[in-house]
Amino acid sequence: MTDLLLTLVMPDDLAEHVEDLLLANPDLVRGFTASHADGHGSVVQLNDPAELVAGHAPRTLIRTIGPEDAMRAVLALIRATFPGANIYYWLAPLVEAGKL
User: Fold this and answer.
1) pTM of the model
2) How much is the CA Rg of the chain, to the nearest whole Å?
3) Is the C-alpha dihedral spanning 45, 19, 22, 24 positive or negative?
């Protein structure tokens, strides 16, 4: 089974909760990388006055890889734990991964 890359994009205030959920499920997520990003565009909700002025909103990007069934289980777990949480995601096939 080919591994997939799961990318999650969320408001910064939600990131720690999602990270805790991922860490609590090592059977689904072997590890992940979190980094800062700025959300731009018509699909990004700008709520804070500073976001409205800047034209973008702070976001956290979380990336992890794993088998398709595990990545879909992670999505289901996040959906059930944080309904309507404004988390964008995508799954992409992984051509190659390794450690150098």
Assistant:
1) 0.84
2) 14
3) negative
